[in-house]
TrEMBL record:
Keywords: ATP-binding, Coiled coil, Nucleotide-binding
The protein, known as: ABC transporter ATP-binding protein
Coiled coil start-end: 531-590
One Pfam family of this chain: ABC_tran
SUPFAM superfamilies: P-loop containing nucleoside triphosphate hydrolases
Domain of life per record: Bacteria
Taxonomic lineage: Bacteria, Bacillati, Actinomycetota, Actinomycetes, Micrococcales
Organism (species): Pseudolysinimonas yzui
Length: 600
């Protein structure tokens, strides 16, 4: 490996705390590094030190001669008077940049809704952030530093960015260091993980899933690690290993070791018990949307703008649903119908008599009247206890579970960080004991540890959970099924986020898609014996899929060893690989179809 840059015995200290103490680390050609850690532990500071934007107090940062580096910082801003085109392609003439496939791909992937000749100052904050990212990616760099690049990207945009970074450099060339709380993105892009904690940097081989495994092993060997944190990460690992075939058939960590670690760990959620509890609290009726349409007055073509059209959605007690869609698709309008803040233009919304809805939104509603109060005083005004997973907890214990320290209890709400405010908002909502909880982009300002803690808490919440998020990992982790808002329609996604991305690709190719209401396309449900039969078939398909995937890898390895001049053997091997890939594709389709039956 060719060395690109590194830090040797780097230390940094502020008047109130030490950030790093003698950190030594290097970046080589081909490295794809994800940086994780608690908020405030120094992840962004580390990137700035390595990029030369901050000088360390001790130690030094060295760079190989001629190495170029580009960085996207959370604080980077573009001149408001600058045009988008100038920011992205500079003074390059049109035929030069338009003839570059990489530049065209970046513009299409990030700036589809951004006016090419618009002023930076006239764009929304999210659009400005995407312009800054596009300006970085359209240029050539040996090393790229990205600080929270998935912020303001939807599921589609995150998938595009992951693919771009995977193919940006040839194998074993270039270097990438990325700070992100998006755990799916970490697994999709990174081959090494750095954890920043307690003034040090600890490296782990592999992406997020491999990091979780190694961290569990580290915690087991260390007698000083708190049992609660260890159990939480074991639970996270258990979910990773029990995920869909797309995750388990291509593991980035040692399967035998993982199985040994989680053999006594139960599933993250007892779905049957939670639904029973939810039904007891809610009854059979929650919220039904029947042939609902919503339109708003608009100047476009002199008529109204239709946001949702003929949507039917019968929400069940204990349902855990993730809602996906591009910005502006109508997700917030849909959840507004459920919450009662939006009225339908046509159709009917029916609510059960015992329904009590709470919304965790991006505006921190519910904290506005408490900004000058201390956290302990705010919590003291709520209920004296909360039951989670059959265990009664005090608000203080719940705060501890959500990552608050004793010292932070005396902090005024206005002085909390964005992530701390978000966690306090969730706590107040849970103490109010709603039976329908709507989460609107709940991952903002939360690090990976706090996301895992929040997900752990939601695993035992006995109500109906509706989640809108661009965080793919969160959607797959806390919900049992996903739906998409597509062209005003509401569609069930038996294949999850992967199916949604394929649907969006088909739209971009002009193929269109079926916009029938989700309820019309759903099966009628399975009885106990039929369900067990389908579950047994799913397990059999997963075993066959794993065997086929292993066969593909083995056949490709054998193909690499064949003499290039031996055309007969080469042809036979390629034919065998094609047959195995066709078999794997058919098995995946079968698995998706069976999954649709189980989720009905």
């Amino acid at each position: 490996m060719v060395h690109l840059l590194g830090a040797e015995s780097v230390g940094l200290e502020y008047p109130t705390r030490v950030v790093f103490d003698a950190v030594t680390v290097g970046i080589d050609e081909g490295d794809r590094i994800g940086v994780v850690g608690r908020n405030g532990d120094g992840k962004s500071t580390l990137l700035k030190i390595l990029a030369g934007r901050i000088e360390p107090d001790t130690g030094r940062v060295t760079r190989r001669g001629g190495v170029t580096l580009g960085m996207l910082d959370q604080g980077d801003t573009l001149p408001p008077e600058q045009l988008v085109s100038e920011a992205v392609v500079g003074d390059r003439v049109e035929h030069e940049w338009a003839g570059d496939a990489k530049v065209r791909d970046v513009i299409a992937g990030l700036l589809g809704d951004v006016p090419w000749e618009g002023r930076i100052g006239d764009l929304s904050g999210g659009q400005q952030r995407r312009v800054a990212l596009a300006a970085l990616l359209t240029r050539d760099w040996d090393v790229v530093f990205l600080d929270e690049p998935t912020n303001h990207l939807d599921v589609e945009g995150v998938a595009w960015l992951a693919e771009h970074l995977r193919s940006r450099w040839p194998a074993n060339r270039g270097g990438l260091v990325v700070v992100t709380h998006d755990r799916w993105f970490l697994d999709a892009v990174c081959t090494t993980t750095w954890e920043v904690h307690d003034r040090i940097l600890e490296p782990f081989e592999g992406g997020y899933a491999a990091y979780v495994l190694q961290r569990v092993e580290r915690d087991r060997m260390s007698a000083t690690i708190e049992a609660k944190r260890q159990n939480l990460m074991r639970k996270e690992l258990a979910w990773l290993r029990r995920g869909p075939p797309a995750r388990t058939s291509k593991p980035k960590f040692r399967i035998d070791a993982a199985n040994q670690l989680i053999e006594d760990v139960p599933d993250p959620r007892d779905t049957v018990q939670l639904k029973q509890l939810a039904t007891a609290r809610l009854g059979k009726d929650v919220v039904d949307l029947e042939n609902v349409s919503v339109s708003f007055p608009g100047a476009e073509r002199g008529g109204d703008t239709v946001v949702l059209h003929d949507v039917t959605w019968r929400i069940a007690p204990g349902e855990r649903t993730g809602v996906i869609g591009i910005n502006g698709a109508g997700k917030s309008t849909l959840l507004g119908l459920v919450a009662g803040t939006v009225q339908p233009t046509s159709g009917r919304v029916k609510r059960g008599k015992t329904v009590k809805i709470a919304v965790l939104d991006q505006r921190l509603v519910g904290l506005e009247g408490f900004m000058n109060d201390r956290v302990s005083a705010v919590v003291a005004q709520q209920k004296s206890s909360y039951v989670s997973g059959g265990v009664e907890m005090t608000p203080g214990q719940l705060l501890e579970r959500l990552g608050f320290t004793t010292a932070q209890l005396s902090t005024p709400v206005k002085d909390l960080s964005g992530g701390q405010k978000r966690r306090l908002q969730l706590l107040l909502i849970l103490l109010d004991e709603p039976n329908v909880l709507i989460l609107d982009e709940p991952t903002n300002d939360l690090d990976t540890d706090m996301l895992a803690a929040m997900e752990d808490l939601l695993d035992t919440w006995p109500g109906t959970l509706l989640v809108v998020s661009h965080d793919r990992y969160l959607l797959e982790r806390v919900t049992d099924n996903q739906y998409a808002v597509l062209d005003g329609a509401f569609r069930h996604l038996p294949g999850g986020v992967d199916q949604y991305l394929e649907l969006r690709k088909s739209v971009s190719r002009g193929a269109g898609f079926d916009t029938r209401p989700a309820a019309a396309a759903q099966p009628t449900g399975l009885g106990g014996a039929d369900r067990r039969a389908v579950e047994k078939e799913v397990a059999a398909v997963e075993r066959r899929l794993e065997k086929a995937t292993h066969g593909i890898h083995k056949a490709k390895a054998e193909l690499d060893a064949v003499d290039p001049s031996d055309y007969v053997t080469l042809g036979a091997k390629q034919t065998a690989i094609a047959a195995l890939e066709a078999e794997a594709h058919a098995l995946e389709e079968q698995w998706l179809a069976l999954g649709a039956q189980l989720e009905s």
